[in-house]
Write a structure and sequence with these properties.
Structural class: alpha+beta
Radius of gyration: 27 Å
Number of strands: 11
Shape: globular
Distance between the termini: 112 Å
């Protein structure tokens, strides 16, 4: 057995103590540095959050939200979407915004918290509550919903979302929409377009093997339905976060007919090849080909999407898909344009005049 002088033992003990203190300081410094890496990214939406009134700024805000919330980050970022600047939000804008936040919530498995609600615009706060925005996102609302402007917009079906078109949820939707048709004296079959759009979302919008820019929350779609007393019209919308209609059409059996229709337009030189890249022209041609083809039924094209509009005077449907925008009414596309920014999927918005549908369908 070895014996060590007391002074050596004291020196070793002192050295060990100093080493331990250095380790603690280093650990605390590392922890502090890690804390410093956490910072907040504030997303500021435009005052007018609407695709029809302010497309570029609305889509730019959504893209910034996706970049901040969904892309892998070296530094830790807490994303804060500030609702305070919004003075007006459309139903379509609210649906797509809810879908993007819903994807964020599902992928990151995070609980959302509301901030500064006392400074939100009262009409924005009311329409989001009425549409079921917070219910879809599983957020508890602790503020009082303003009564101001409540009669300007009536929610018929609050925001809903699913990755399937089968089962109890969709059965309930069909039954509920039949009741809506009875209330507004409409033919229930016109709402079959909603089912068809949701079916196409699941079947075509998310092709296997496609590399999406941002992660997706399954083959999911989002929908809502509302009534505008001022316009006396029912509006229903379906949105998906897929690749967009122009991207899916080359796999369609009628794709060559679509190309022929685009090339039949009297264009010269580079304008011909440009037309084949214009998403609005591609969607317009696909609608025409789909209407004249004999194929129908689930997932067979855009025919079932435009049929309700063909049956009812004054009805219209707007398709925003990829970079293209097409407004269809009275048997033809009455407006089309191509945007600089990709909407991030496909949004279909039908507007059906209430009270006229049943009479015109029967006649």
């Amino acid at each position: 057995m070895k014996f060590f002088p007391r002074i050596i033992l004291l020196k070793d003990s002192h050295r060990a103590h100093k080493t331990h203190k250095k380790t603690i300081r280093r650990r605390n410094r590392t922890t502090a540095e890690k804390r410093l890496k956490w910072h907040e990214k504030r997303i500021v939406p435009p005052k007018i959050f609407s695709f029809s009134e302010n497309y570029s700024e609305t889509v730019s805000c959504l893209k910034e939200l996706k970049r901040s919330a969904l892309r892998p980050q070296k530094d830790k970022i807490r994303t804060f979407l500030d609702f305070e600047p919004i003075k007006h939000i459309s139903v379509a804008g609210a649906l797509v915004l809810a879908a993007e936040i819903d994807r964020w919530r599902r992928i990151k498995r995070t609980n959302l918290r509301l901030r500064n609600t006392d400074r939100w615009n009262p009409s924005v706060k009311r329409i989001l509550c009425d549409l079921g925005f917070f219910g879809l996102l599983n957020v508890n609302v602790s503020f009082e919903v303003p009564e101001e402007g409540r009669n300007d917009h009536i929610t018929v079906i609050p925001f809903i979302s699913s990755s399937s078109v089968q089962g109890e949820l969709f059965g309930e939707i069909r039954n509920y929409m039949h009741k809506i048709a009875e209330v507004f004296s409409q033919d229930p079959s016109i709402y079959g377009a909603l089912t068809e759009a949701a079916y196409n979302s699941v079947l075509h919008a998310y092709p296997k093997g496609h590399k999406f820019e941002y992660p997706i929350a399954g083959k999911r779609w989002w929908a809502t339905c509302s009534y505008n007393p001022k316009d006396d019209a029912v509006k229903f919308l379906v949105y998906d976060q897929g690749v967009g209609i122009p991207e899916t059409l080359p796999r369609w059996k009628h794709w060559e007919k679509v190309r022929e229709k685009i090339q039949a337009v009297p264009l010269v030189g580079p304008a011909i090849s440009q037309a084949l890249n214009d998403h609005s022209r591609i969607i317009e041609a696909a609608i025409d080909v789909s209407r004249t083809s004999m194929s129908g039924g689930h997932g067979k094209g855009l025919k079932d999407v435009v049929t309700p509009v063909d049956l009812i005077t004054g009805a219209k449907v707007r398709l925003l898909s990829a970079n293209g925008s097409v407004l269809y009414s009275d048997g033809k596309c009455i407006e089309r344009r191509d945007e600089m920014l990709h909407i991030g999927g496909t949004l279909i918005e039908w507007t059906i005049p209430a009270g006229k549908a049943l009479e015109e369908v029967e006649s």
